[in-house]
Automatic annotation (TrEMBL):
Name under which the protein is recorded: Amino acid ABC transporter permease
Taxonomic path: Bacteria, Pseudomonadati, Pseudomonadota, Gammaproteobacteria, Pseudomonadales
Superkingdom to which the source organism belongs: Bacteria
Pfam families per UniProt: BPD_transp_1
Family per record: Belongs to the binding-protein-dependent transport system permease family. HisMQ subfamily.
CDD domains, sorted: TM_PBP2
Its job: Part of the binding-protein-dependent transport system for glutamine; probably responsible for the translocation of the substrate across the membrane.
Amino acid sequence: MIKHKKAQWPWHGLTALVLVGLAISLYLATSMMAYEWRWNRVPQYFAYQAEEAQRAASYGTVAEIVVQGDNARVTLKGEDGEPQVLDVVKDSLQLSRGDDVAEGDQIGVTRHWAAGPLAWGLWTTLWLSVVSGALGLVIGLFAGLCRLSNNPTLRDLSTVYVELVRGTPLLVQIFIFYFFIGTVLNLSREFAGVAALALFTGAYVAEIVRAGVQSIARGQNEAARSLGLNASQSMRHVILPQAFKRVLPPLAGQFISLVKDTSLVSVIAITELTKSGREAITTSFSTFEIWFCVAGLYLLINLPLSHLASRLERRLAQSD
């Protein structure tokens, strides 16, 4: 009996209609608020042309001005006879040949492309996420294995750590690290932020690792021990590789949450993506545009991470 595959295009069409409806609803909502969209103000917060003033080093006279396209080369002759050559943008030139200049007078400016606050905020969020995630993975793996240890001290200490961190808000932990531990040990705000994020992530990774290891049948460990492997070798070569396949989805979800949790370190004056967005709003007055861009940048980080985890999960499943 031949089964006919149902057409999927009507459902895709319905999805498109829902998305269009949401976009129209957003447009109508902003129209009722009399909100004026100003997307032209947004690009400067990603990259802009910075100006650097060029000033006279000493008292002297403008000896020569040579125009080269959009730039101008200005030669100043100082009182000691030493020339000073400055390259500036032609339309910023403020002097003419023969004019006298004093020390510190601005001759013109040079322009170069520079990263805007949203670009710097994105970079800060990325390195915070990578460093905190790597440290959290190491901490979580160690704490998770300690929770499975036969040593009561290791088991009790790891349990206290996991329950304490998971039972208190991350925001409170950041405050404690920065204002208490950071003050006592003279830690920078970046170190305190990374430490708080790493320990918070490590507690959740520890539970994920513990659950993954316990999901492996005990016969696997017994078979490995019967082949002559000790407990450490059995865990490293037999149990953990199988557990990793099972814990990959929750691990990916935890690291995606970590990227979003980095927004909380703005409370200790670390200018990550969310804080950069707030600062951009205060100067641009483009509230919706900036927040949509911030949300899009978080998606730009998390969607590839989620896709990579899915692909890795499928490859590991095929290797079974």
